[in-house]
Amino acid sequence: MASRRPSSSCRFLSLCPLLLLVVLALSPSAGANGVFKVRHKFLGRKPSVGDLLAHDSRRHSRILSSVDLPIGGLGLPTSTGLYFAEIGIGNPSKKYYVQVDTGSDILWVNCISCKRCPQKSDLGVELTLYDPRESVSGSLVSCKENFCVSTYGDIPGCAANLPCEYRVVYGDGSSTAGFFVTDSVQYNQVSSDHQTRPVNASVTFGCGAQQSGDLGSSNEALDGILGFGQSNSSMISQLAASGTARKIFAHCLDTINGGGLFVIGHVVQPKVKTTPLVPDQPHYNVNMKAIEVGGAILELPTDLFDTGDKKGTIIDSGTTLSYLPEVAYKALMNAIFSKYPDLKFYNNQGFLCFEHSGSIDDGFPEVVFHFENSLLLNVYPHDYLFENRDNIYCVGWQNGGLQSKDGRDMFLLGDLVLSNKLVLYDLENQVIGWTDYNCSSSIKVRDGKTGAVFIVDSHNLYSSGKRLQLGGSILLLLLTLLCVF
After folding, report:
1. 343: domain range?
2. Last residue of some domain: 266, 297, 321?
3. Residue of 56, 172, 223, 316 with catalytic role
4. 306 classed as catalytic
5. What digits encode the pLDDT tens for the residues 296-342?
């Protein structure tokens, strides 16, 4: 996503001197493609309705509030997305579990010098603090280096021996701060159909040194965040700038079987139709044109979808639910439940819930969002209605009028409508698109160097025994595709 500049570009922290180490260039060969394995934090255990709203509330305090974000969205791993990956960092490589987030602009992990970093996680994964002194391929990034200058501009008082640092303060008062390092990041290369091998790439990322507020909590904590935003500081942008990857990625998140895919590169199957991204936005925004319920277009104010100050509809896989302005929310709900005028609703932790026997898909209408370039987003009843307990269903749509001032007029479509679809982000052509897809099946990708097309399958992050405890997973594929198609 586009980088958002704060009022002051950075603040230097008092840090103990760290040993500067020589970086070993461990970039993969041109045209390589690779794999991260990723899992959904709620799969394998049934979250309460309160868990879902709490997740979005924490996330929206980050993306909807006025905050200091030097290089984009950073935050608590539990509030930045629903999917996380196992990656390797350093030489020798160590395992780190990082949140996968389309709303963040860098990769960062908690550092050995971190204050109040969580020491354990309720997710059952083993947390690791990154120590640049233990990696022969790690080095600190000086505030004089190009990465820092391009991110912050000229920094007063900067000297070659001072590190490049970042600090983020959130609306709830929590904060994170640290410094940048460059080191080897390891993932798995797709070498042929269904086959991979490990490779490394040199990446600049954040080393979190100080945490405050909720950022120090161990509840569902992870080691950091793997951001897939549009900023030049994001991992995908760095890989593209080095010629390692194309600036295109896609995800397919399976909420049925707990599998899926997250791919960087050229997906040749399935085919995806696209719509333009709204330019110069900090998120992935698109232009919505209409909402259809059960085959009928809702009658809504003509200016509701104007880009103006609203700047389109946010597509965000890190948000659990979907949020609409109040006028659209009320019209949508009236149309969905028009066949059931006597249905009795009750409030359960912020959700409207009701009792219903029989098939949800047979009893309620499909919702279709219309976007520029005639792109449609189909949302089925089993997507927007979820069973809280036997024959008790709750509605996933949320009234934006009940949100913060900045969010009440915003369309924000999250995991509720994006799951079980292949969603493509083509940052080279500034378009986004999607298609309904079985995310537990295979896809086809093209190698940028050889032109070969490989079949890649969805996998599980853990063995079947551990998966019973930790839930399902999705497969994140990093495809370095250089050729222009």
Report:
1. 271-436
2. 266
3. 316
4. no
5. 999 999 889 876 655 789 998 767 788 999 999 999 999 999 999 99
